[in-house]
Amino acid sequence: MENTEEPSPLRITPTVRALSSALRGKRENVPESSRGHGDRIFPEPEKLWFKESSAKNLRNRDFLSPTTMLNTLYADGQVPPAVMSRVLSLRGSGVLPMAGGEVMGEGLRVRVDRAAAFRAVLAGGATEYLKPSSQRQGCVVLNCPTLHPKPNTPTPDTLTLGQLRTILLADHMGALLRGQGFSVSYCPTLPEDSDIIAFLQALGIDWPTAPANWTNEEREEKIQEALEESAYRERETERGRRTSGGGGRKVEEGENEGALRVNLKQVFQEEGLLGYDPSLGTCTVHRDSVSHLAQLDLATADCTGAMATALHVTSCQDEFRQQQIAMLWRASGATHTQRHLVCGPVKTPGSHLTAAQYLQLRRGQMKEASEMKYGDQVEGQTWDDIIRVMTSATVRFELLSTVHTSPVTLDVQREGGVSTKGPRGGVFVMYNCARLHTLFDSYERGVEKGLYPEIPECSQLDFSALKEEGEWLLLFNYLIPFAELLDQSGQALDGEGGGARVNIKTEQICKFLVSLSKDFSSYYNRVHVLGEPLPHLFNQMFCRLYLLRALRELYHSALDTLNLPPIRQL
């Protein structure tokens, strides 16, 4: 019976593993001096090979095993012919096919069979390369402390740039996790007619809402009762011992002696929760805290049959307060996993802007830049939508392109403009995505005029025609690795033993898109994709169109994780 099983998508990680296995071989092939204690073999497999990425190195190799690694495995670094044969004849699920290899001064370098790789990736429209490599299960609640009432719902005019950063990060994480199969909800629910909802919608953020007269009083009462009955509640006798004599803590002026207090330190110590601030101590329970917990309870209510993970996306200034909330929730009986994604501050040297002022500034700069480039045609709803999306892209890339724990420094001088280069990479990314749409519009017009035939089936094309170095760079550095890049946020969330804080490479999608746009722009400026309508040139043109069509979809998939719709024409 014929095997109709679809071949596995090509991946970098399985290829590196297969290369390492082929190079190390069986234990008896490894010199005693390179063995570690017990059954461990040195060096570690993941250190044996490196994927190349620079255009310069990709001219002569795709993977390299450095000389230092070869010397630990083989005498004088000489790779036996049998081992070389294993390396060059690799097979396996997701493993890139090899075309050749040789030992040079820098080490053992191998090249991928590039024509076969192009065909394998592009044959199905690259759909398996535009989504996470595996689907996950679970329920994640993205809690944004910035948006909780204290006691009033925040407004755009009270929102700081640091707080805006946490909201954008929560929105980005939600899109990433939902794409991996997680059930995602957001906390808190906001009044549907509030100014903050209109502000978030202007940035393309779809946050959950409820009618203005909606209340969560029933859940608040339940939380209050649970805390009053909690084993971690501080009893009057304990409070008396702390507030009388012996240098213990005294009741502060204005503090309600009958207030409900919970020993948070006891919570994380007795329940073995790591990474919480040892100075949390005992906390007085206020109404806004109960409201916060009730919102969390609501957000996790639909997580039936599965334990939820609450990811608190907070600023470094509010981290201590959010740890208090997390332990209060635990004291109320909640057993969900809680992790804290902490953002560094946003600095604006020489200026102090609210989130509303910042968005207004960037929108004005975007409109001015558009009018300078396109003149009087910048008017009407279409251009309003373009400017809105481009402004959102600028803001998102400015605040999300930096490691989330590090500070962000913004240039908010009003005389500055919005550039297509540099730190405001969002405009540059959107512009290059639009260039791909324009290219295919031009091709379709050429088909209508009879200049070009329709794109044939992939099986009819010879992909060895893709010899320009930029073409392989776009496939090998972007299309093939993208699925594994998408996997990382869910994997980080699953990490055990990391304590309360979780560090996720949230900046990688923005950096990926900016790097992709630079390499695509360089290629597009150098190569004339739609050539003369001559039959002997069609094969190469169609191969390029297959590649660039997959690249256009790659842009769409990456921008989806930022909740940015593509701009199709500029």
TrEMBL record:
<dbReference type="Pfam" id="PF05746">
    <property type="entry name" value="DALR_1"/>
</dbReference>
<protein>
    <submittedName>
        <fullName>DALR anticodon binding domain containing 3</fullName>
    </submittedName>
</protein>
<feature type="compositionally biased region" description="Basic and acidic residues">
    <location>
        <begin position="25"/>
        <end position="41"/>
    </location>
</feature>
<feature type="domain" description="DALR anticodon binding">
    <location>
        <begin position="429"/>
        <end position="570"/>
    </location>
</feature>
<dbReference type="GO" id="GO:0006420">
    <property type="term" value="P:arginyl-tRNA aminoacylation"/>
</dbReference>
<feature type="region of interest" description="Disordered">
    <location>
        <begin position="230"/>
        <end position="256"/>
    </location>
</feature>
<dbReference type="InterPro" id="IPR008909">
    <property type="entry name" value="DALR_anticod-bd"/>
</dbReference>
<dbReference type="GO" id="GO:0106217">
    <property type="term" value="P:tRNA C3-cytosine methylation"/>
</dbReference>
<dbReference type="InterPro" id="IPR009080">
    <property type="entry name" value="tRNAsynth_Ia_anticodon-bd"/>
</dbReference>
<dbReference type="GO" id="GO:0000049">
    <property type="term" value="F:tRNA binding"/>
</dbReference>
<dbReference type="GO" id="GO:0005524">
    <property type="term" value="F:ATP binding"/>
</dbReference>
<dbReference type="GO" id="GO:0004814">
    <property type="term" value="F:arginine-tRNA ligase activity"/>
</dbReference>
<dbReference type="InterPro" id="IPR037380">
    <property type="entry name" value="DALRD3"/>
</dbReference>
<feature type="compositionally biased region" description="Basic and acidic residues">
    <location>
        <begin position="230"/>
        <end position="241"/>
    </location>
</feature>
<feature type="region of interest" description="Disordered">
    <location>
        <begin position="1"/>
        <end position="41"/>
    </location>
</feature>
